[in-house]
Design a protein that fits this description.
Strands 1, 5, 8, 10, 12, 13, 17, 18 and 21 form a nine-stranded mixed β-sheet that branches. This protein has 451 residues and is an all-beta fold. 51% of the residues are buried. Helices cover 1% and strands 28% of the residues. The longest helix has 5 residues, at 70-74. It is globular, with a radius of gyration of 25 Å.
Length: 451
């Protein structure tokens, strides 16, 4: 170990030009060597965006300058910081990691973790333009949109990949990086529930972020059942000026479940929540079975419930209904990417509705004396349940190849890492439409011009 060198890098803070900021400076990595230090404050401000370190004593910890496991990497003390939009307009931002001049360690040997999104090899992230003249490479950690005066908190960890071998490619190397935030003013178009189709005429050619939230399933207030919450889907797409985009916002199952939650079932105790979808052709989701290529994005609605819990909607597979009280074990499954959820028939021959979900439509509940809860609307709807049960949630959809950087979030759901069905489970559910969060109440949609 006598040949080990000690390289000390002083962290530098440079004030960014308009809407370009950098935070987190000199970080050195090497196999069995290198120290780092920071001497100045990590608070930077520029027009429209401010960045501040949450805890100035909490810079990236490099107490293990050798390959470690992802589990150990996730336990490192994070570098915590906040991004705030200080202007009146919404800001579309990129959070990038730029490798600085002097970096000799290839990015394929570096693992990163942003918030709780899991360990990611740096070399697998999308490349982007550098903002610092001396940077050799830039990778996008994440993107987002901030409304006026809105803030977002991040925790960032970085470590050497545990699979790195001790050879000339990794020994005696340095990794120097800065976190850089770039942003541009943008225009946000919000679409609330109306119970009718809405049309968006693209104002200018460019890249747009599209987001949808499905609606919550109906809850039976008498018996205490709770409808499943709607899912969330997002992606980016290039649109041309003058194009017409059609938006149908799912309705809360408590009030009919517009767009697939069975708003026409006048015998229902609790309709399913309606799906929210955006497409390049007009019509409710259920009418587009022969025009799937025109569907851009879908967020599934939650299943209705009488005495149980409706399954949450969204993701590549909608959730099955769940138990709330004992004695009424009637749970229907959620919709998938190619079939509707399986419903539960009445214990008699009076099944006057199709209880199974299908494309764009949740199943209709029924029983001898009254209707059971309906399945949630979705790309494929959830199955309905008989009385006192919990219906399944509808599935989401991001399979259109025109979408990039696409993902779906759903409440306590099954995850997928495939690009066309990427799904992340969340425990967040809000009445207010919130990015990466399931939705209570009616559905919602948002289209943001990126540039």
């Amino acid at each position: 170990m006598s040949n080990i060198k000690t390289n000390k890098k002083i962290i530098l803070i440079t004030l960014g030009i308009l809407l370009i900021l950098s935070l987190l400076v000199g970080v050195s990595y090497a196999y069995y060597m290198v120290t780092h230090s920071q001497t100045n404050s990590n608070i930077v401000k520029s027009t429209c965006i401010s960045l501040s370190l949450t805890n100035e004593q909490n810079d990236i910890s490099l107490d293990k300058q050798y390959p470690i496991s992802d589990e150990d990497g996730a336990s490192l003390t994070p570098y915590s910081f906040t991004i705030t939009n200080t202007c009146r307009n919404a800001i579309s931002y990129n959070l990038n990691l730029e490798m600085l001049e002097g970096t000799t360690l290839d990015s394929k040997y570096v693992k990163t973790m942003l918030n709780t999104r899991g360990a990611v090899n740096l070399a697998t992230l999308d490349t982007t333009d550098t903002s610092i003249n001396t940077s050799s490479e830039a990778r996008t950690l994440t993107t987002g949109v901030l409304s006026s005066e809105e803030s977002i908190n991040y925790e960032f960890r970085m470590w050497m990949d545990g699979s790195t071998e001790a050879d000339t490619n990794s020994m005696n190397k340095e990794f120097l990086a800065k976190i850089v935030v770039t942003g541009v003013p943008t225009k946000v178009y919000n679409f609330d529930y109306t119970g009718t189709e809405q049309v968006f005429t693209v104002p200018q050619t460019g890249k747009y972020k599209i987001e949808t939230w499905g609606a919550q399933g109906g809850s039976d207030t008498y018996w205490g059942g709770q409808g499943g919450v709607g899912g969330y889907s997002k992606g980016y797409i290039n649109l041309a000026r003058g194009e017409e985009i059609y938006i149908n916002i799912g309705g809360n199952g408590q009030y009919g479940g517009y767009n697939g939650g069975n708003e026409l079932n006048d015998k229902r105790d609790a309709s399913g929540g309606g799906a929210t979808h955006i497409s390049k052709t007009s019509g409710l989701l259920s009418s587009l079975v022969e025009q799937i290529s025109k569907i851009l994005i879908v967020s599934g609605g939650g299943g209705g419930a009488e005495r149980q819990l409706g399954g949450s909607g969204g993701g590549y597979i909608g959730n099955t209904g769940k138990k709330l009280v004992d004695g009424y074990n009637y749970f229907s499954t959620g919709g998938t990417q190619n079939r509707g959820g399986t419903g539960i028939q009445s214990d008699s021959n009076l099944a006057i509705y199709d209880v199974n979900g299908k494309f764009g439509q949740g199943g209709m509940g029924n029983s001898d004396t009254d209707s059971g809860p309906d399945g949630g609307g979705g790309f494929f709807g959830g199955g309905a349940a008989t009385w006192a049960g919990g219906a399944g949630g509808g599935s989401g959809y991001i399979g259109n190849p025109l979408l990039t950087n696409k993902v779906m979030y759903c409440y306590n759901c099954e995850e997928s890492s495939e690009e066309s069905t990427k799904t992340i489970s969340t425990t967040c559910s809000e009445e207010t439409p919130t990015e990466n969060c399931a939705k209570k109440g009616n559905g919602y949609a948002r289209i943001t011009y990126i540039g």
